[in-house]
Design a protein that fits this description.
Number of strands: 9
Structural class: mainly beta
Mean pLDDT: 92
Order of helices and strands: EEEEEEEEHE
Radius of gyration: 17 Å
Distance between the termini: 32 Å
Helix content: under 10%
Shape: elongated
Strand order of the largest sheet: 4-3-2-1-5-6
């Protein structure tokens, strides 16, 4: 079952927060609902609307990785590589910005997926 999860960059603390996306009334308003609790109340966190990204359902995976890979969201920069390895090079090796369903399919079909960063924290990757 697909997991519907979002992230956005918090306006107050400039940190990433994860949860459910809630669009504000104004166009420049966006929130992440971090904790949904009927007894204690909901925890809405104000985020920059342009940084909202949905979880793709794909986690990074590559040979040198230790433990479980990080989740990949729209707006992330990833390296897709694999195939024959000869003289320090892989048969295919490309870097993409995740922005469409096509990119999700490419990640699912790739032998290795390495998360390099995202377009907001690491603009030098573009």
């Amino acid at each position: 079952m697909k997991e519907y999860k979002f992230r956005g960059k918090c306006v107050e603390r400039d940190k990433w927060v994860y949860g459910y996306y809630v669009k504000g009334i104004q166009e420049d308003e966006a929130y992440i609902l971090k904790n949904h609790n009927r007894l204690l109340g909901d925890d809405f966190i104000d985020v920059y609307p342009e940084t909202i990204g949905q979880f793709t359902g794909v986690k990074e995976r590559y040979p040198q990785m230790v433990g479980e890979g990080q989740e990949i969201y729209f707006g992330d920069v990833v390296r897709l590589f694999g195939g024959e390895y000869c003289q320090g090079y892989y048969e295919y090796d490309q870097t993409i910005v995740v922005k469409s369903a096509y990119d999700i399919v490419a990640m699912e079909e790739s032998e290795n997926v390495q998360l390099l960063g995202n377009i907001w924290d690491n603009p030098e990757l573009l």
